[in-house]
Amino acid sequence: MSSIRNLVHTLILALCFSSAAMAVTPPAQQVNINTADAATLDRLLDGVGPTKAQAIVDYRKANGAFRSPADLAKVKGIGPATVQRNAARISVGAVKAKPAAPAKKPATR
């Protein structure tokens, strides 16, 4: 009887540990590459250190907002592999469309 009890306890412990090991990992925290500062980019993006994070901020200031996460690869030192590795973390937020040119009024005679 004691051996059956030990077996049941062992099975229960094994189930507890296996379910903890298979627990769903929380989703990666997203970062908006159009608004984040260099320190935040450095902290949240895998493979991006302080120098690359500052390059992202500098590129954004010089060229405007990123339209898609893939645009991040345009930054010197950031390649497609880095973008792919961070795809779940990268957000661009709502990018405003450029305003259309005003319509010309017909000429009056």
Describe the 3D structure:
The protein has helices at 2-21, 38-44, 50-63, 80-85; strands at residues 31-32, 90-91. It has a two-stranded parallel sheet with strand order 1-2. The chain has a domain at 31-91: AF1531-like domain (DNA polymerase, domain 1, Orthogonal Bundle), CATH 1.10.150. Helix 2 crosses helix 3. It is mainly alpha-helical and 109 residues long. It is built from 4 helices and 2 strands, in the order H-E-H-H-H-E. It is elongated and about 105 Å long. The longest helix is centred in the first third of the chain and has 20 residues, at 2-21.
Basic shape = elongated
Average pLDDT confidence is 82
Q: Structural class of the secondary elements?
A: mainly alpha
Topology pattern, helix = H, strand = E: HEHHHE
Q: How is the biggest beta sheet arranged? A: 2 strands, parallel
Treating each run of at least 4 consecutive H or I residues as one helix, how many helices? 4
Could you tell me how far the N terminus lies from the C terminus, measured between alpha carbons in angstroms?
108 Å
Return Rg in Å.
25 Å
Strand order of the largest sheet: 1-2
Short descriptors:
109 residues, mainly alpha, elongated, two-stranded parallel sheet, DNA polymerase, domain 1
Furnish the topology, listing elements before pairings.
Blueprint lengths: L1 H20 L9 E2 L5 H7 L5 H14 L16 H6 L4 E2 L18
Parallel strand pairs: 1-2
Helix pairs in contact: 2-3
Nutshell version of this structure?
This protein has 109 residues and is mainly alpha-helical. Helix content is 43%, strand content 4%. It has a two-stranded parallel sheet.
